């Protein structure tokens, strides 16, 4: 009798343990509850895939408003979308607001600087690019800055920035696209060549033709194919009477 009882107890124990094992397995294999994606985020992803710029901007606005805290970081994406769509005013406005919270964020500074330049608010654009260049020493920001300083005829500032750029170790493999002599097409020249070219333009504006020619020649030393540099030297070296005649022909 004792043996039967023990057998029954063992059987019950086995059944109990087996049941627990099966229950545990069922819990593991229970299908997970699907988390629904924010519909505005889904629309944004789809519109981005299709290249639908208008819907990208619209969906991003709705997305940010729907859950401001969760999707706060998408405000940067929206500012970039404005810029890429050519909505420079909206990009500048949004980037300015975001910069009040993150004043040192490089990507936002670039968006604002680029938008300001496209809006031809060159004085403020120069301030932004100067800040970017001073903080990062990235020569690309310096290139934007010297062009703005030249256009604003801040020649002393332009020369200082050029001096800083020429001190940097910029490899000859680094190129920049510039217009050709015909102004209808472009060519790639070395960054250093372009810096010397801008220096030549600055000297020319300052009426220092001798220094201007030397800078244009240095531009050609760095890149012999630079058409604008060659044309600038030819123009400065042209006999005065030829220049007067050319100006008279233009006026006819």
Keywords for this entry:
single chain; mainly alpha; elongated; disordered C terminus; TPR repeat; TPR_rpt; Tetratricopeptide repeat protein; TPR-like_helical_dom_sf
Mind explaining what this structure looks like?
The chain is mostly helical and 252 residues long. The chain has helices at 2-29, 39-50, 53-66, 74-85, 88-101, 106-118, 122-136, 139-151, 155-167, 191-205, 209-222, 227-237, 240-251, and strands at residues 175-179, 186-190. A two-stranded antiparallel sheet has the order 1-2. Helix 8 packs antiparallel against helix 9 (155-167), helix 9 (155-167) runs antiparallel to helix 10 (191-205) and helix 11 (209-222) runs antiparallel to helix 12 (227-237). The longest helix has 28 residues, at 2-29. The N and C termini lie far apart (130 Å). Residues 246-252 have low confidence and may be disordered. InterPro entries: TPR-like_helical_dom_sf (IPR011990), TPR_rpt (IPR019734). Keywords: TPR repeat. This is Tetratricopeptide repeat protein. TPR repeats lie at residues 193-226.
């Amino acid at each position: 009798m004792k043996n039967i009882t023990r057998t029954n107890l063992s059987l019950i124990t086995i059944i109990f343990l087996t049941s627990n094992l099966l229950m545990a397995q069922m819990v593991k294999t229970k299908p997970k509850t699907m988390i629904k994606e924010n519909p505005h985020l889904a629309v944004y992803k789809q519109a981005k895939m299709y290249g639908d710029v208008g819907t990208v901007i619209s969906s991003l606005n709705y997305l940010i408003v729907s859950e401001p805290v969760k999707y706060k970081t998408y405000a940067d994406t929206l500012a970039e979308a404005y810029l890429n769509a050519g909505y420079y005013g909206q990009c500048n406005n949004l980037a300015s607001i975001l910069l009040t919270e993150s004043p040192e964020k490089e990507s936002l500074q670039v968006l604002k600087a680029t938008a300001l330049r496209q809006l031809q608010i060159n004085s403020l654009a120069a301030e932004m690019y100067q800040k970017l260049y001073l903080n990062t020493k990235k020569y690309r920001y310096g290139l934007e800055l010297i062009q703005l300083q030249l256009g604003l005829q801040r020649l002393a500032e332009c020369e200082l920035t050029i001096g800083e750029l020429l001190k940097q170790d910029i490899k000859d493999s680094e190129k920049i696209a510039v217009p050709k002599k015909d102004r209808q097409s472009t060519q790639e020249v070395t960054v250093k060549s372009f810096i010397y070219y801008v220096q030549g333009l600055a000297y020319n504006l300052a009426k220092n033709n001798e220094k201007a020619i030397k800078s244009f020649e240095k531009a050609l030393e760095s890149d012999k194919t630079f058409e604008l540099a060659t044309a600038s030297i030819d123009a400065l070296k042209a006999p005065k009477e030829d220049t007067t005649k050319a100006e008279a022909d233009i006026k006819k």
